[in-house]
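Trying the structure run again after the queue cleared.
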Amino acid sequence: METQAELLTADTELVQRNKHVVDTFFTALETQQFELLREVFAEHGRQLNPYVPAGFPPSFDGSEAIYRQYSSLPQQFGQMRFPRTIYATDDPNFLFVQFRGEIDIKAGGKYENDYLGTFRLQDGRIVEYTEYFNPLVMAKAFGIPLQ
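Done. Tokens:
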């Protein structure tokens, strides 16, 4: 039978491993090593985008769809930076991240927005990532009419 201290240590270690997985997601974007996305997302993993403007997908379903989405970004974007803080919760498999997107646009200019992401993990892989951001900032940066 495990003691309270052993359970706490196990949870702390799991949180640290999960934080590393989430950090690897951001590192993959910043370094454009998009193949890492296949490693950090579960095959059935999803990214939910609840506040995207019309015409943008509300989700990417499956690790391959997530890989295709992000690996296409260098066509329009240069350097991407995501200064971030990763927070644990009472559930070691649920983390949230406060971050800022600082993205160079190849056509000129920069896109910057503040984000909150929630990450649910299972067996060391992301099974659900929900990305919250200000859609007004996005629409203005890319000239997207809001309805």
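The CA atoms of residues 21 and 43 lie 15 Å apart. Worth checking whether this holds up in the mutant runs.
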